[in-house]
Amino acid sequence: MRKFYLFYLMTRLSAQGSVMLVGGNAESYGGWSDDPYGWFVQQADSGKIVNIDVSEASDWYPAYFINLGADSSSHELQIPNIFSANSQNVYHDLVTADGIFIEGGDQWDYVQTWKGTLVDSAIHVVFNNGGVIGGTSAGLAILGGIVFDAENGSLTSDQAIANPYHPRISFTDDFLDILSGVLTDSHFNDRGRLGRLVTMVARRAQDHGEDILGLGMGIKTAFCIDQDRIGTVYGKMITVIHQTDDTELYCVPAEPLRFTHLKFHQLLHGAVYDIDNRVLVDPGENMSYYEMPYEYLNNYSDLTINGSNQSSENYGEIIVTGITGDSDNWWYGGLGTTVGDTSVPDVVIIPKMWTDYYYFPNRIIGGLYGIVSDPPKFAFYLDDNCSVSINENGLMTVSNYAHILDAFPDGYAGYLNSVLPGISDATLHYFTESDTFDLSTYYIVESIDDELINSNYFAIQSLYPNPFNPQTTLHYSLTKQGIVKVNVFNIRGESVDEVVNEFHAPGEYSITWSGEKVSTGIYYFKMKFENEIKVVKGVLIK
């Protein structure tokens, strides 16, 4: 046994293999699954693939893999107890495989039966020797570095958000760890699991100081991750969340979760994502690039929106229809949009968010559906016991808790088959009692009024170089004396530096700004002279 563990430790230092995550639901010959499962066979070099389960293993998978080109020795293997999991015959069968696929079921069965056994070790040997590991549903859930183990049963999003320390939230940290730093969740959209994934990511941040990547896998979707940990979406869609430099967290027992400034992507078939560097490599053919429209809008009025009232959706610019019709409208194209009264511009409002479990998917996807409408918008997700107050300056204050998905930064957006919405680089906030959010920030930072563009008093000639690293110079001129202020803002509308605040005589000026203390991204140089504002966008690339 000592020789085995030495061999095991040595393999842990070798090149790692590839991974296929499958969100659940039916695979089929000639259907959506042929491409990702064909990829799995290729990653196994068309060799032997073994599909495993604690319960009765399916003979359908080996037949399917063989049909896609796997070796005829591919087969199913039931490993129902610890005795079997420590069998040398089972171990030999697994370590001689080129790919191992873990079926769906109950992840706690897998954890308590296989953890620390020869099955656990064999999966690592295959992976660390360059083989491919895959899983669907519960088989997917155990492949992350942090496993939601469901020891105490499953839980819903509303339970998790209301109490981040709900007894059903339990983790296993020392099982397979095939995808270190990642927590996965399956059946993500059809069971409305966004709230529970956000809560689990929050718990790891609160309890362990971890900044993990949350992957929510939709049904009939696979995420195929190569040896460089770059994954391609096949089928429908996946959701990716992680913290940012501006994330704030309040996570305590029996109180609603506060977790702000989370990066949010919902990626459609064909998208390519780097899970280590947390960047979208390729949006795929279903999403296209959009730039925020530079409009001057600040027409807010004092208003309170009650989350328990379905008619509150009318206050937004876009109303999503079909939410309380068939519970599968999100999947079959039953959602639509109509125009609201625009009391709150650029917003889609989803009231009664967690009222009925069967409508969770319609409401979550409905908010995204409205956001991806042109132009992109905020989505307000409001529960029955929540309200938000908005004043004439666009300052929103939360009562109890509310969620906001903010799509205002430039990014990619689109629909799969005109039904399922996708978006990149959005920002997700879970707000609690008395939290505030400034809806007008982006207008203040980014807006350009036509009258100001034609002003003769001052002009921005250029920002050069752009993109820049780490310095750039803003050139501007004045034909009138007065106080000039120049501030630099990030894409969230937060001021990161004040570079000028002084009296200028008429003339030409230049200022150099260094981005050494901030991260790569888009920054806005806002110049204010008297009551006039002009903005230029710069891109810092480190």
Structure, explained:
The chain has 542 residues and is α+β, with helices and mostly antiparallel strands. It has three domains: 19-282, Class I glutamine amidotransferase (GATase) domain (Rossmann fold, 3-Layer(aba) Sandwich); 297-395 and 434-443, no CATH class; 448-540, Immunoglobulin-like. The chain is built from 14 helices and 34 strands. Strands 6, 7, 8, 9, 12, 13, 16, 18, 19, 20, 21, 24, 25 and 26 form a 14-stranded mixed sheet that branches. Strands 3-2-4-5-1-10-11-14-15 form a nine-stranded mixed sheet. α5 runs parallel beside α7 (118-128). The chain is globular, with a radius of gyration of 26 Å. The model is unreliable at 1-14 and 443-455 (pLDDT under 50).
- What is Rg? 26 Å
Low-confidence stretches: 1-14, 443-455
Structural domain tally? 3
Total strands: the figure is 34
Oligomerization status of the protein chains:
single chain
